[in-house]
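Encode chain A's predicted structure.
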Amino acid sequence: MKTRVILVGVGGATCSGKTTLAKHLKRIIPNSVIIHQDDFAPPQELVPIHPKYGVQDWDWPDGAIDWKRMIASLKDVKRTGRIADDHYSHDHLNEQKDVPIPEEVRARWTQTFEELAERTCEKREEEQIIWGLVDGFLLYWHPEVLEQLDIRFFLRVPERVLKQRRHERHGYHTAEGSLWRDPPNYWEQIVYPAYIEAHKHLFEGGDVENGRVTREDVTIINALEESMGNIVDHCCQALVKYIDVESSKVQ
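Encoded structure for chain A:
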């Protein structure tokens, strides 16, 4: 059976709900896998020290991700339709707040994607679609990562809400399993400035809070204005529409 891989970007700031959304989509969509950008962070001893504040900087775009390894992995998933056996994810170590969606939404879209998979297989000579759900806080910074993604969602949440959510978390686990806790003023001095730097090119005037998006291929979701059920609903509609458009091109 032939395999077609579609990579779906789920980007946004830390604590914007991107991983929660990706996991809901994975439960709904058959033949889907999640690729967490955090899994491509460098070893803790290689995380750079901030030149001004003297603490490890896990957020600045240049040093927060092993870009070479991530890009190679995305290309490999697109080629093979699977995550390499030696890939290790530490996402399960992090606390995950339960944000449920209505069962009706989950069941309706599960049925829709199952039927879509059957139709696609029939129309395109035994072709199977694999969905790669790529979630991360720096997804749209590196041009080669952007190039690999077929569909791009961005969850936008006001800074005051992001800050509160971040402060409510107990920390983040590293690949080595140790727990990272934010030093004092880490949000104000490092996290949010790095977020603005990595995403200002996406918005008019560099206004990540209120600016209009400058790229037509990035769909902005104002996540605080929607329930998670509605967000899942909107994303699933967009994914089905993408398949319909691609199928019409082949015909």
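Residues 84 and 197 are 31 Å apart (CA to CA).
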